[in-house]
Specification:
- Chain B: InterPro entries: Cyt_c3_hydrogenase_gsu, Dihydroorotate_DH_Fe-S-bd, FAD-bd_FR_type, FNR_nucleotide-bd, OxRdtase_FAD/NAD-bd, PyrK_electron_transfer, Riboflavin_synthase-like_b-brl.
- Chain B: This is FAD/NAD(P)-binding protein.
- The structure holds 2 protein chains of 2 kinds.
- By secondary structure, chain A is α+β, with helices and mostly antiparallel strands.
- Chain A folds into 2 domains: about 10-95 and about 115-240, no CATH class; about 250-285 and about 305-375.
- Chain A is built from 13 helices and 16 strands.
- Chain A has helices at about 15-30, 90, 125-140, 150-155, 175, 210-215, 225-240, 250-255, 260-270, 275-280, 325-345, 355, 365-375, and strands spanning about 10-15, 30-40, 40-45, 60-65, 65-70, 95-105, 105-110, 120-125, 160, 190-195, 200-205, 220, 285-290, 300-305, 315, 320.
- In chain A, the strands form 4 sheets. Chain A has an 8-stranded mixed sheet with strand order 3-2-8-9-10-11-1-12. In chain A, strands 7-6-14-13 form a 4-stranded antiparallel sheet, with no helix packed on it.
- In chain A, helix 9 (about 260-270) packs across helix 11 (about 325-345).
- The longest helix of chain A is centred in the C-terminal third of the chain and has 20 residues, at about 325-345.
- The N and C termini of chain A lie far apart (about 70 Å).
- The radius of gyration of chain B is 19 Å and the shape is globular.
- Chain B folds into 2 domains: about 15-100, Elongation Factor Tu (Ef-tu), domain 3; about 115-275, Rossmann fold (3-Layer(aba) Sandwich), CATH 3.40.50.
- Chain B has helices at about 80-90, 125-135, 160-165, 190-200, 215-225, 270-275; strands at about 15-25, 30-35, 50-55, 55-60, 70-80, 95-100, 115-120, 145-150, 175-180, 205-210, 235, 255, 255-260, 265.
- Chain B has a 6-stranded antiparallel sheet with strand order 4-3-6-1-2-5. Chain B has a 6-stranded mixed sheet with strand order 9-8-7-10-11-14, with helices on both faces.
- In chain B, a hairpin with a 3-residue loop joins strand 3 (about 50-55) and strand 4 (about 55-60).
- By secondary structure, chain B is of the alpha/beta class.
- Chain B contains 6 helices and 14 strands.
- The chains are: A alpha+beta, B alpha/beta.
- The interface between A and B is large, with 63 and 45 residues.
- The complex binds flavin-adenine dinucleotide, iron/sulfur cluster (2 copies) and FE2/S2 (inorganic) cluster.
- The site of one iron/sulfur cluster (SF4) has 10 residues of chain A, from helix 11.
Chain lengths: ~375, ~280
């Protein structure tokens, strides 16, 4: 069956079966298809064999320090907000080997790591996630030096985005200007429609590769009513944001308040557990770990995720530069919301809300930022 | 995304052989390495390399050699912890991993036709040495050249012979002081600044290059201010934790800057906002 190839930037309508066939085509083309699935009471990212691996009819409830899955009344495939994992682990994995060495007669012999050779398709990528990927691109491939591992993992990724309909209680992408509607960086972007007709998806075409794929899948033109319904979905999401961040002059707000009493106050609640930095889709800190075999004949160097909440992060001979939790919390928040702008021209926060949900004591980044604005600090 | 995979991985070191080890102090040594590639190793004074010891780890170390002799790579290292102690155990003929050169440099081009004032505390003389060697080799490019160095005690001098050689030249002013905490009425950290207080200066035509412990630089900046040297004429070399040297690992952040790429050498007025903030 031949289907018309849609134009780039056009939108078409796909039924549930059409989406299933789209995933199948990606698999047939040799893509490793990765998307949301339920595991251990959370929505995580894993390989998808088909749409039945998606969290069908699953929703979530998120609040500071709280995350629960719930059963939805419908069969939505994307009826939840972001889970604990972001897509950063696809491009900046928690741990990689940098190289291996062995002692040779003429000196150490280095075995470099081969570039990652895979075709990756990401399904269900939210707007905040796309923005977060763009933020990390600036860190790893946008500067003078290019991270070879990141570049090889990032190459040729096929992205199927999803526009958000139901943000969680901790989401605030609307106020960060990073969602809920995907504005670019995708091959296809879906808006899931659950009422006013059959379960269907309005699909926006973002690239030639996306158009080529759709040409192989049964689809129909999207009607005016479908377009209106899709716009209503993201408009509702904007209206239902769980939280809000006031970003006016936020850089100078932080730079002018490095000694604000709120830092000491939040440090009393913060456990320094590093959760916020690990779940954050933009945090890029890493450390290196060196090991040798018992005989000392071979050595391995690894790179692992690190966090500015550890004492080691700022350790120089003689001690940590930031021994107090006050200073470490200040580094995290100041980096995310202020100094990131100087470094990369964007905020380091995309408003995904993960750091709020996954903080064991429920510290809320939006509340902490708001407290700096208040003249009288909360006692 | 279409960024090509770089042919060169900035996280993978090249290997260089130690051709000579000079023992400066019981815990300080200078390595002479044959440049990792035959083409020589060119760098700008003030820059550093990431040095990797087999299986032990990698640390940032300033280049302390002569920029006019790129065939040889020189580093002066104090053994303070796991990696640098493993390095102290290495001998002539051993190999070491090198990535670099990284970071910003002393502003030697801008300092042309000006007075150059070097202020070093302890091992801080090592990162300044390439700049001093350059200034002495291209002496006519600068007006006065002044080197002020402070050490904890006479037993802590490094590059002693060289400092004496420089001092014997008529076209260089070299003042060295030791910090005798028990007899000095100025206290332990006021010693190098005390040299600044007394040296003959033309503040509007001086470029001051500072390297040493942060607390020493703080007092030195204060003294330079008192002498009327404008902040934009003062340059400091900062130290922070470093795991990559190329802007990836996040460890070296100093406010909005990365010491590995925006530093280690900073024009003081550009970091003044950060310089006095504790634990930043
Ligand atoms: C730009 C720059 C230039 C420098 N130039 C010079 C120079 O020319 N000469 C010189 O001698 N020094 C120089 N230094 C300082 C030098 O890099 C440090 O002294 C060196 O890194 C110390 O490493 P170490 O492992 O021997 O010591 P340590 O102090 O033991 O450790 C250093 C690293 O090991 C890690 N570490 C320490 N303790 C632990 C622990 N308990 N658990 C896990 N990890 C730990 C820390 O994360 C730290 O980054 C420079 C530093 C910078 C930033
Ligand atoms: S700081 Fe928090 S809300 Fe912002 S991107 Fe990171 S995890 Fe998401
Ligand atoms: S907030 Fe902390 S862990 Fe995250 S990128 Fe910044 S310094 Fe690194
Ligand atoms: S040393 Fe890694 S970012 Fe500067």
């Amino acid at each position: 069956m031949v289907h018309p190839r849609p134009d780039i930037n056009a939108s078409v309508l796909l039924l549930r079966d059409g989406l299933a066939s789209l995933l199948q085509h990606l698999r047939d083309d040799g893509y490793l298809v990765v998307g949301p699935t339920v595991r251990d009471g959370a929505i995580v990212h894993d390989q998808l064999r088909g749409i039945e691996d998606l969290p069908v009819g699953v929703g979530d409830e998120q609040a500071p320090g709280r995350y629960r899955l719930r059963r939805r009344a419908d069969q939505a495939l994307f009826g939840y907000a972001v889970g604990p994992q972001s897509h950063k682990r696809e491009f900046f994995p928690p741990s990689i080997r940098l190289f291996q060495l062995r002692r040779g007669a003429g000196g150490p012999v280095l075995t470099p790591e081969p570039p990652i050779d895979r075709k990756l398709a990401l399904i269900g990528v939210r707007s905040c996630e796309l923005q977060a990927i763009a933020v990390q691109d600036r860190v790893f491939v946008g500067g003078h030096h290019v991270d070879a591992d990141y570049a090889s993992r990032r190459r040729g990724v096929f992205v199927v985005a999803v526009n958000c309909g139901e943000p969680s209680g901790t989401c605030f992408c609307a106020s960060m200007g990073t969602g809920p509607r995907a504005s670019g960086g995708f091959d296809l972007a879906l808006t899931e429609l659950l009422s006013g007709g059959p379960h269907r998806f309005v699909v926006e075409v973002g690239s030639a590769a996306g158009a080529d794929l759709l040409a192989r899948v049964e689809h129909a033109p999207a009607s005016e009513a479908d377009h209106a319904a899709a716009s209503a979905v993201t408009a509702a999401a904007t209206a239902n944001m769980g939280r809000h961040m006031d970003t006016r002059d936020i850089k100078s707000l932080f730079y002018a308040n490095q000694e604000h009493p709120r830092w000491a106050q939040v440090a009393e609640r913060c456990l320094g557990c590093t959760n916020c930095t690990l779940v954050c889709p933009t945090c890029f800190c890493s450390t290196t770990v060196d090991t040798t075999d018992l005989a000392g004949a071979t050595a391995t160097r690894e790179r692992r995720w690190d966090s500015c909440f550890t004492l080691d992060h700022s350790y120089v001979h003689g001690g940590s530069v930031r021994p107090s939790l006050r200073a470490r919390y200040r580094q995290w928040l100041t980096h995310k919301l202020a100094s990131w702008i100087d470094q990369y021209g964007t905020s380091g926060c995309v408003g995904c809300g993960r750091c709020i949900t996954w903080c064991p004591v429920g510290i809320d980044i939006t509340e902490e930022a708001a407290a700096l604005r208040a003249d009288v600090p909360v006692a | 995304m279409t960024t090509p995979i770089p042919l060169f991985d900035p996280m993978v070191p090249a290997f260089a052989r130690i051709s000579r080890v000079d023992r400066e102090l019981p815990d300080v040594f200078t390595w002479h390495l044959a440049a990792p590639s035959g083409a020589g190793f060119s760098f700008a004074p003030g820059q550093f390399n990431m040095l990797y010891a087999f299986g032990a780890g990698e640390v940032p170390i300033s280049i302390s050699g002569d920029p006019n002799r790129p065939e040889e790579l020189v580093h002066t290292i104090r053994a303070v912890g796991a990696v640098t102690r493993a390095m102290q155990g290495l001998r002539k003929g051993d190999t070491i991993g090198v990535r670099g050169p990284f970071g910003s440099a002393w502003p030697l081009a801008e300092a042309r036709d000006q007075d150059l004032l070097f202020v070093a505390g302890g091992l801080g003389v090592a990162p300044l040495r390439p700049a001093i060697l350059h200034a002495l080799a291209a002496r006519s490019l600068y007006r006065r050249v002044i080197v002020l160095a402070g050490f904890r005690s006479p037993a802590d001098f490094i590059f002693r012979k060289e400092l004496e050689r420089w001092r014997s030249r008529f076209d260089v002013t070299v003042e060295v002081t030791v910090d005798r905490a028990d007899t000095s009425f100025r206290g332990t950290v006021a010693v190098v600044p005390a040299l600044i207080a007394e040296v003959e200066l033309d503040p509007a035509a001086t470029v001051a290059l500072l390297c040493g412990p942060e607390v020493m630089m703080r007092f030195a900046v204060r003294e330079l201010e008192r002498r009327g040297v404008p902040h934009e004429r003062i340059h400091v070399s900062m130290e922070r934790s470093m795991k990559c040297g190329v802007g990836f690992c996040g460890h070296c952040q100093y406010g909005p800057t990365f010491v590995c790429k925006d530093g280690p050498v900073y024009r003081f007025d550009r970091i003044e906002r950060l310089f006095y903030v504790r634990e930043i």
